[in-house]
Automatic annotation (TrEMBL):
Single Gene Ontology MF annotation: symporter activity
UniProt protein name: Sodium:solute symporter
PANTHER family: MAJOR FACILITATOR SUPERFAMILY (MFS) PROFILE DOMAIN-CONTAINING PROTEIN (PTHR11328:SF24), MAJOR FACILITATOR SUPERFAMILY DOMAIN-CONTAINING PROTEIN (PTHR11328)
Keyword vocabulary terms for this entry: Membrane, Sugar transport, Transmembrane, Transmembrane helix, Transport
Positions of transmembrane segments: 40-60, 66-87, 99-120, 126-148, 169-192, 198-219, 245-263, 283-303, 310-331, 337-356, 376-401, 421-443
Domain of life the protein comes from: Bacteria
Biological source species: Lentilactobacillus rapi
Biological processes per GO annotation: carbohydrate transport; sodium ion transport
Cellular-component GO terms for this entry: plasma membrane
């Protein structure tokens, strides 16, 4: 009888903890500032790095592609290391939150230096580009890994996490909008005909804004139950992956997503400058990426009816349809813009889902192994996928362009080069997105098991709290 009473008491305590664990609105917004800051600078890198290296910095497309791949390999290795560092962090601010304070300035400075062209030539110029690219990306990894790893500690509510993540992605999209839409005209305005000067000044101003946003986010965020968090070993971090199949699926699917996304973004400036014969269309089309907030904001509503796996599949399909639409639109700008908007809504919303679901795999890992490795699991599921996918995507795009004969020194590209640009921008992403879609269909099985995981973990935590209280008595 007493045993049953204890079980009932634990269950009631667990339900009470879940019901009362809410995240204030202002904290959801300031949590979103982290991604807004990151995207304000990182989306310049992901969208224009290859273009900047070839058309502004002065590197060949082959050299630029190799640098981008090597840099991403370094960063991809840095992602799990950063995750382990988060898991080993123990401070009065929590595990993830202090990293926003520590990395905000290095992130802003290194990105600015990356887009600053020094008076160098030959090997030294290539070396400067490579080193700054690695430092900028490593600092982004050190800043972005805590963005995902902090979410499970802000609230244990699935709805609260989904809402906070949606707001984060919406504000992140605002950062993306200002990055990809205005950086080229802003650099042109500040440079007065000197592209190298203009890019340095424009990115410098963006860096200041990004730094301020990160500091505000740090000051407002709060991690819960940090007094109960223990420092876990590397071995324990790795143990959290054992049998964690939903995490494996999310990692591979998200890696495929980012590879496709960066292939598209890297080749997009070339497509509009050369295939559509209008450099102004680059900023014009990128300005319409803001439309993806419609999909991002609606994600929680879609999830209620289609679940997470179904919502992700739906938006990936939308992305692929939009990409194909652009391909069939040809030189029709209006039709291409419609396809672009459809693709942006789809890709932005799918991205939201991956970030939300990787947090759920932390719960599964704890349920399965007894180890809660927020930092390591989310670092691989988010930062590693972004960095490695970006490396693969940029490299794939550059090698295809090189194979089809692209040369930035030629103001008019050959027919073969134009075909390569079109193939890279339109069809290669569709092929890679399809891989991600298939994996998300498989993920359905694991999502159905989540209610059991949540209930069991809540009951365990309630029992642990009750035992700790009894021990103190």
């Amino acid at each position: 009888m007493s045993s049953n009473a204890n079980v009932d008491s634990n269950t009631a305590s667990a339900q009470a903890l879940l019901a009362n664990d809410t995240l204030p609105w202002h904290r959801k917004v300031t949590y979103g500032f982290t991604d807004m800051s990151g995207n304000l600078l990182y989306c310049i890198i992901s969208s224009y790095m290859l273009y900047f290296f070839t058309n502004v910095f002065g590197l060949s497309v082959g050299t630029a592609g190799v640098l981008l791949l090597i840099g991403r390999i370094f960063d991809a290795i840095g992602a799990p290391v950063m995750g382990i560092l988060v898991d080993h962090t123990h401070s009065k601010y929590g595990k993830s939150r202090p990293w926003f304070l520590w990395m905000s300035l290095p992130f802003a400075v290194f990105v600015w230096l990356l887009f600053t062209t020094p008076a160098l030539s030959g090997t030294m110029k290539v070396l400067y580009a490579g080193v700054m690219y690695i430092l900028a990306d490593l600092s982004y990894t050190a800043m972005s890994t805590p963005i995902t790893s902090v979410l499970p500690n802000l609230t244990s509510s699935t709805d609260g996490r989904m809402q906070a993540n949606s707001i984060r992605l919406v504000l992140g999209n605002v950062g993306n909008f200002f990055a990809v839409t205005f950086i080229i005209p802003f650099a042109g305005l500040l440079g007065g005909g000197n592209d190298q000067k203009g890019w340095s000044l424009a990115v410098g101003i963006y860096s200041i804004v990004a730094f301020i946003l990160l500091i505000v986010a740090f000051l407002d965020m709060r991690e819960k139950n940090i007094e109960n968090e223990k420092v876990i070993t590397i071995k324990e971090s790795l143990k959290a992956t054992k049998g964690n199949w939903p995490w494996v699926l999310i990692v591979v699917a998200n890696l495929a997503y980012w590879t496709a996304f960066i292939v598209r973004n890297s080749s997009m400036p070339y497509y509009f400058q050369y295939n559509m014969s209008s450099k102004t269309l680059i900023s014009f089309f990128n300005g319409f990426t803001i439309i993806q907030v419609i999909g991002m904001a609606s994600v929680p509503f879609f999830v209620k009816f289609m679940h997470k796996w179904g919502t992700t599949v739906f938006f990936l399909l939308m992305t692929m349809v939009g990409q194909a639409w652009i391909g069939f639109a040809g030189s029709n700008v209006t039709s291409a813009l419609i396809g672009w908007c459809v693709a942006c809504i789809g890709s932005g919303s799918a991205c939201t889902m991956f970030f939300a679901m990787v947090g759920d795999t932390v719960d599964f890992g704890e349920w399965k192994t007894g180890v809660r490795a927020n930092g390591f699991l989310t670092a691989i599921g988010a930062s590693f996928c972004i960095q490695m996918g970006s490396g693969f995507g940029s490299f794939i795009a550059s090698m295809i362009l090189k194979g089809f004969g692209f040369n930035a020194a030629n103001k008019v590209q050959s027919a073969g080069s134009l075909s390569g640009i079109s193939f890279t921008f339109v069809w290669v992403p569709i092929i890679i997105y399809a891989i991600s879609l298939v994996l998300m269909i498989v993920y359905r099985k694991w999502e159905r098991h989540e209610p059991v995981v949540k209930a069991d973990l809540a009951e365990r935590n309630a029992k642990a709290a009750q035992d700790a209280k009894a021990a103190q008595a």
